[in-house]
Structures are given as C-alpha cells and as structure tokens.
Amino acid sequence: MLTIPGNRTSRFCDGVSRRSFLRIGSLGLGSVALPGLLSQQATAASGSQTRSVVMIYLPGGPTQHETFDPKPDAPSEIRGSFGPVSTNVPGVQFCELLPRLSRMADRFSVVRTLVGLENRHESFQCYTGRPGGRNEDGEPAGGWPTFGSVASSVLGPGKNGMVSFVDASPHMNYAPYRNQGLHDASTKISWPGFTGSAHVPFALEGDVQPDLVLNGINPARLDQRRELLASLSDIQRQIEGAGSDSLQQQAFGLLTAGRLAEALNLDREPVQTRERYGASQSTDSGFGGAPQSPQHLLLTRRLLEAGVRCVTVAFGAWDWHGNRGGTVEYLSRKYLPVFDKAVSVFLQDLDERGLLATTTVVVWGEFGRTPRINVKGGRDHWPGTQSVLLAGGGIHGGRIVGKTDRIGGIPVERPVHVQEVFATLYRHLGIDTNNIKVPDLNGRPRYLVEDNRQPISELL
Description:
CATH topology: Alkaline Phosphatase, subunit A
Shape: globular
Number of domains: 1
Number of helices: 13
CATH architecture: 3-Layer(aba) Sandwich
C-alpha cells in the first residue's frame, strides 16, 4: 500500500505529519509494491496481451424461454408469445427476438442447464459462484472473494501494471445488484472477502468521465503534488537500472492511473464505433437494475485493451414478474432487441481486434425464470436452471451444453454446476484450481472452487 501525504501540518506521536492520504491499494493493483509494479512494467513485453475475463451480469435473472432455450412445442402459457429462429449452427434455435446473435451462434456457446444458484436477487452469486450473507451459508472468515479479487490476488496487476479488476457497471438503485458484497434479505456484507481490500474492484459507478477521480482526488489535484514524489527516495533506490527522473515519471503515471483514465475516455473512440454500439435505453426504475448501456460494453473493450484483467459490467433489468414495467411479452419486445445488438456487436468487436482469443466472456444472471407465465403475464424466479452464454478465450463456439425438459424447467441432460463455470474462467486465466489455494482471514487455505469441480469439458 502506497500513501501520498497531503498538506496538513499537525503531527502524530511518531512525528509523522497528520495529513490526508490517497491509498493506491484500493485500485485493485494487488499486494505488489510500487517498485515491483514498475519493474514488471519495464520488463513486460509490449506486445503481450493479458488473458482477461468479462462478466456481463444481467441483474434480476433473465428468462431462458425468450432467449436461448425456446420451447415452441410447449403450451402457450409455457412457450410465450414468440417463436424460435434458426441459428447459423444446424439444429440450434434461439428466440426470434435474437436475430443478430442467432446469425453468429458459431462464435459462442450456450449452457442451457446451469444449476447451483440460490433464489436470491444479488450479484454476489454471479461474481463469487457461492451463496453468502446468511448463517447457513458457512462463509469463511472475511467472506468469499469475487473471481476478479482472486485473480488480482493470485496473478497481480494486468499488463504493464494496469489495474487488475474493474467494475464498469452503471449505477443501480438496488444495492445487492452492485459489486460490493451486499446481500438480498441479509444485513451481512461479504466485503471485501478474504483476499482483502487491496483486491476489491475499482468501481466506476457508471460515470464514464475522462477526468478519472481516485477516492475524491483527481489528476489535476495530484499534478499539483508532483514534487511529493521527490521524497520517495527509499522506493527509488529499490529499482535498479532506472534514473530518478524516469522513476518519478513512471510512478506519477501509475498513481494518476493515466492509462486507465485514457481507457475511460470514450471521446477517443471514432463516432462510427460509438454509433455501432448504439445508444443507452433506460429501464423501469422500479426494477432497481441497470440501464441497457451498450456504451458501457464499449468501455469494457477499452479497458481490456488497456490491460485490465477482469471486468464486470451490469446490463439491463430482468426481474420480469409482470408486476412492474409490463408483461414478459412487452418487456421482451422492448429490451431484447437492444440486448441482442449490444452483445453481438461487443463480441464482433472483440473478435475483429483479436481480443476474443484472449478474453472469456460470460453472460448470465442470478437465476432463470419460471416455465409457466403467471397471471400477471410475467415469469417468476426460477433457480432450477438458466441459460448462460460463454465465448472466447479458447471456448469452442457453436455448442449447446445440456438439455432441459419439455417446459424448460429442469435439466434432463448434463446439468452444469456454477462452480464448473468458475473453474472454466480460472483455467483461462492460467489459475490451477486443483492446486492453488488462498488463505482466509483465519489462515485456513481455501480451494477456489468447491467439490473438485472441473472446467466444462464440452467447451474446451
């Protein structure tokens, strides 16, 4: 943890001035000291590409029937208002409201039989793969860390010392949807998890601004304190082979997170690219979820290019009971075309830029929706199964894993546990879940996945 002192003059008993501090550890840079970061930056191959994971979180739980697991032969109260459309993979059909994704289904795969999630409205399950916040969950000391926190702890910073873990989600009114360890119907907070505060995500809270703010101190204010770096001679001496001026410039660039600020500046993107992704569409405030913001997916791509290892981003609001916003038919017509375009453009953009080969993308919510449409015209919570899109990072495209029953309620072939998804993500990042353990706050070594779950072999 590096601290930059401010200008207050009163002193502690040890003689150190009482001043305000900017703590860099909260950027998700991990426990690596600044000299180590600069050394890594100096020795990293400029052309190397960080292996990355992007998790597109769909707060509220998306419907599998109106997305990737249509049931055209089921009764109307099951199949809903929409028919299937054939994809470019023979024998595979999606909902007709996903024509763009259907035309590129050979570039991603779908798990139709995800199990292992609880009936809880919270992002925590998606970001950790485990339940938390209740006594029966048996959380370890410190709480379960998110997958990005684990990656930050085990692997350290991203390319050239870049922030390892960023939450790029827009602001959401319902607190348990945020990536902050908050729980549904529980006062407990599993934050920051046993990897510690140095590995929590750097949260943008939805404000995509070129003037990046770090804990309330912006780069302009830091620029006025450039001379403070001259006092870091003890750190300078730890770096071999670099001159004082060079060190000061590198350290200042890291402290202001200049490359991160650059990545957040969407004005750097050509107008055609921004228009290709499309404009944001707000969602009903009663959902408490995120807007449908394709520009946040564009921002995510820029973060990957800057060297961020793990990015989480929330997209839309999917709690479609029919008690707010309209029926599932109305909500599907309104929101699924935007989802279809945004995710397809994002995957295409990653592919065109060579990023999809090194980036695994997972798109999911905290559970699926009921097979039967309720009397209000909506679908209720259904942890029995859900459909998950997986792409990139060595995952084969054009595959369907698992099969649900005739009403899309339970798996009848190859249930896939959520821990298998996490094993797949860690494998892509180069983390051996069979051998690597991280200690909790009591010092007990913890495996990263439970019950010896392995990566999804059908996708690799």
